[in-house]
Specification:
Largest sheet: 7 strands, antiparallel
Number of helices: 4
CATH topology: Alpha-D-Glucose-1,6-Bisphosphate, Chain A, domain 4
Structural class: alpha+beta
Number of strands: 9
Number of domains: 1
CATH class: Alpha Beta
CATH superfamily: START domain
CATH architecture: 2-Layer Sandwich
Distance between the termini: 61 Å
Strand order of the largest sheet: 1-7-6-5-4-3-2
Strand content: over 45%
Order of helices and strands: EHHEEEEEEHEEH
Length: 173
């Protein structure tokens, strides 16, 4: 399976780079991630629970960062075993491009191989699941890095309650 895409992240490139190298941030954003720990400067171990079609498995594996070019990008490679469900291995090249003072385009190119029961599910299901998981990761990643919303305006007696509408308002009047 191969997948290429780009995502706009609402943060400066240095902030995006720092987040991509923060295991706690990545663990929050990776769908199904139960554990992600740095074992050395360029290696991590991970445990991820994932459901692909009818197969649900817990994968344990190793992730390695290479071709590191701060804050422009790197290559991430990994392999994991899901017991009877099979195995997965692959990698991704990640490139960060500054789109403005508070916006970064994250270009990625992914290739992956799977084996075991997962491989028997068919390419279309695997591709659809991979795209869904990538979308969930980037949605969460972007929301974690987005600036916080402005605080609600307060009235003279604190924050105003939203006005009740419709039949419920008439019932309480």
């Amino acid at each position: 399976m191969q997948m290429n895409d780009s995502q706009i992240v609402p943060a400066a490139r240095d902030k995006v780079w720092a987040a991509l190298n923060d295991p706690a941030m990545l663990a929050k954003c990776i769908p199904g991630c139960e554990k992600l720990e740095m074992t050395s400067e360029n290696e991590m171990t991970a445990t991820v629970v994932m459901k692909v079609g009818p197969v649900k498995a817990s994968f344990s594996g190793k992730v390695t960062l290479s071709d590191i070019d701060p804050p422009n990008g790197y290559r991430i490679s990994g392999e994991g075993s899901g017991g009877v469900a099979g195995f997965a291995k692959g990698g991704a090249s990640v490139k960060l491009v500054e789109e403005g003072p508070e916006s970064t385009r994250l270009d990625y190119s992914v290739e992956a191989q799977i084996g075991g029961k997962l491989a028997q599910l068919g390419g279309r299901l695997i591709d659809a699941t991979a795209k869904k998981l990538a979308g969930e990761f980037f949605e969460k990643f972007a929301s974690e890095l987005a600036p916080p919303p402005p605080p609600a305006e307060e009235g003279a007696e604190g924050a105003a309650e939203p006005e009740k509408k419709g039949w419920f308002k008439k019932l309480l009047s």
